[in-house]
Amino acid sequence: MNSENTATVVKHTGSHYMLSRLPEWNLFPAVLRGRIRLKGSTATNPVAVGDVVVYESDNGLPTLENPAVIKSVQERRNYVIRKSANLSRQAHIIAANIDQAFIVVTLDFPEVKLPFLDRILVTCEVYNVHPVIVLNKTDLFREAYSEQLEAFHRIYEGAGYRVMEVSALKGEGVDALRESCRDRISLFSGVSGVGKSSLIKAMDPGLELKIGEISEAHLQGRHTTTFYEMYPLSSGGFIIDTPGIRGFGLVDIEPEEIALYFPEMLKASEGCRFTPCTHTHEPGCAVKAAVEEGTVSYERYSSYLGMLEEGRKYR
Ligand SMILES: Nc1nc2c(ncn2[C@@H]2O[C@H](COP(=O)(O)OP(=O)(O)OP(=O)(O)O)[C@@H](O)[C@H]2O)c(=O)[nH]1
Ligand SMILES: [Mg+2]
Ligand SMILES: [Zn+2]
User: The pTM is what?
Assistant: First the structure.
């Protein structure tokens, strides 16, 4: 006899999915049969970690030999999506139905590129995901880069984002991170080698995660984490670890909309003489005035101009 139920996707390996009926943590395998298409989606992966799916199974817990069959995906509350390159048509859903996204960066190696961080932040704003910026490896840059550190806080706290300083190695800031993750579903995203898996392990040493052995490996672009996978924290909450991302292309955002997703620019733009205003050449632009005054950072404004130009070029 078959029965239908819902469960959350907690892992996607190339060939199958692992599901669990959250908040229960009891994993079982599932496969996709036939075609599942989501309305209006151009994503290469119709099912992502965090998705709630309807599945069918024989009675008893499904096994690899007799996996559950995913029938449909329930409507997503939110998700994070990216294109691997601007020219690429294919978009990939990183995770769905998350309470917050921790974007892990560092001032040491691999050094954060602000336009890259800003693309992720814009995507979070567009797709309704709450982002938190995590500056990892403070043990390596606290003293050495005090000026850059101060500038980083000024730019991102000035834009309204929370910036948490942590060190997976020394355990600094890890309690605060664990507290923020309690009873929530949190995505950890960022480039390879910033320490996403290390931070998750630091929050819960009982978890089995692969961590990059030597930092030199990352100079060759080695990716230690290769699957999208959710883990239960013993302190409460679920974390989604992801492989490092190289490029982060915007998906489904019109050039003229981009400024709406820079919260500090959106606020400043109330004073622009013209609506719509691209905040580039228009007279009486309050955003440009705010950049001159320093209430909108020059760095964020340049990221905006870069995205605007790319958006026009690749459309
Ligand atoms: N000094 C220092 N090194 C760290 C810290 N956190 C992580 N590392 C090192 O950074 C390297 C990469 O760590 P991972 O946790 O594997 O990085 P990741 O972001 O999960 O990388 P991918 O899985 O490839 O995306 C390892 O050699 C870690 O030991 C930290 O706080 N301080
Ligand atoms: Mg990893
Ligand atoms: Zn303007």
Answer: 0.94
